[in-house]
UniProtKB/TrEMBL annotation:
It comes from the Eukaryota. Residues 317-357 are annotated as: Disordered. This is Reverse transcriptase.
Length: 357
């Protein structure tokens, strides 16, 4: 990491403490998030070394490999353009030596890339790229097709086609057509008032654990901040980020910037009909910092909900789902009577009248 980036990030951290020391309103939280994202983009992402992309070349094709290739092609061109017989042997030997160096460099780079792939991807996730290649789950992009609207008109431009797919897959929610139950739920949701809490709910150790376990292969959201950048910047933005998260919990506010995603429409199967809307699947890429806040809230809710369940109820399955999100079958024998339930006496309230079924 260049020293100028570390110096700039230390300066950014000082500016954050001076300008955003108090986060007591949602507007102040939004301003702090803008300052956070702007600092990472201008001081880290913009200064990162961007490797040149070569068209139709694999990911491991580096600038050094390209340089060896150009040297070999230059020597080869000199040999075939030579018109003097006395220089032929010398030019041929130089061309051969340049070719050997290029091939050796190519093989070395490929081996390093393969070893890195085996160590970081294949060993960690055997159901990742190798499984997808073997199962044929990677497909080439197809040609965007025209669609027929409800009024029998046809989409003639790419913009019209994308708008038609977007409105068909993600129709707008019209409050005027909601039924009574939906209106009641919407009114109750709007009327929710967050409960004021004292102190900081999230701790630095908890945030560090989530950051360390963050995946670096996920596509970024609208902010363009990837997982590897989040890990890299955490050294300087960690305390400021923790202050923002605690302010969000204290005010019961989830920032709008972290709820805004980047919509991507994927083609399910290129061998099927491109004009069938069911052959498309929309996904929304959310910012990484918003996902981290969701994990912190999920862990806090799990700590509050787990004590309400009986130890014998579903044994470890309930705790496993709440904490890790991974389903686990109950170890209870089929037909055996279940003991305990939700009707336990809580520490600060009467017994519930509900019973486990």
């Amino acid at each position: 990491m260049p020293g100028d980036i570390e110096e700039e990030m230390n300066e950014w951290s000082t500016d954050f403490e001076c300008n955003h020391s108090n986060l007591n309103t949602p507007a102040q939280i939004d301003a702090a998030i803008d300052f956070l994202q702007g600092g990472i983009i201008t001081r880290i992402i913009s200064k990162g070394a961007r490797r040149r992309k070569y068209r139709n070349r694999p990911e491991w094709w580096t600038d050094e490999v390209e340089r060896f290739r150009k040297v070999y092609l230059r020597k080869k061109d000199l040999f075939y353009r030579n018109r003097h017989r006395e220089y032929s042997n010398h030019l041929h030997s130089e061309m051969t030596a340049a070719k050997v160096k290029f091939v050796n460099k190519l093989q070395t780079t490929r081996k390093k890339a393969w070893d890195k792939f085996v160590e970081n991807d294949l060993k960690v996730n055997p159901w990742g790229v190798v499984y997808k290649v073997a199962a044929g789950k990677f497909h080439e992009a197809g040609v965007l097709s025209c669609f027929t609207r409800d009024d029998d008109t046809i989409t003639l431009t790419q913009e019209e086609t994308m708008r038609h797919i977007l409105h068909a897959l993600l129709p707008d929610d019209d409050p005027e057509i909601n039924n009574y139950t939906q209106r009641q739920e919407q009114r109750d949701y709007i009327g929710i008032v967050p409960r004021n809490t004292r102190g900081d709910r999230f701790q630095g150790e908890e945030l560090d654990a989530i950051i360390n376990a963050l995946s670096t292969n996920k596509a970024p959201g609208v902010d363009g901040i990837k997982g590897n950048v989040v890990k890299l910047a955490h050294k300087w933005v960690g305390p400021s980020l923790l202050k923002i998260y605690n302010a969000c919990w204290r005010l019961g506010y989830f920032p709008t910037a972290w709820k805004t995603g980047r919509l991507v429409i994927l083609l399910k199967d290129p061998t099927q009909d491109f004009g069938n809307l069911k052959n498309y699947r929309p996904i929304v890429l959310l910012p990484a910092y918003g996902k981290i806040l969701e994990k912190l809230i999920k862990h806090a809710l799990a700590q509050a909900i787990i004590p309400m369940h009986a130890e014998a109820q579903h044994q470890r399955s309930v705790r496993q789902r709440l904490v890790a999100g991974a389903p686990e079958k109950s170890q209870e024998k089929r037909g055996a009577p279940r003991t305990g339930g939700v009707n336990q006496e809580l520490s600060d309230g009467p017994k519930s009248t509900l019973h486990a079924r």
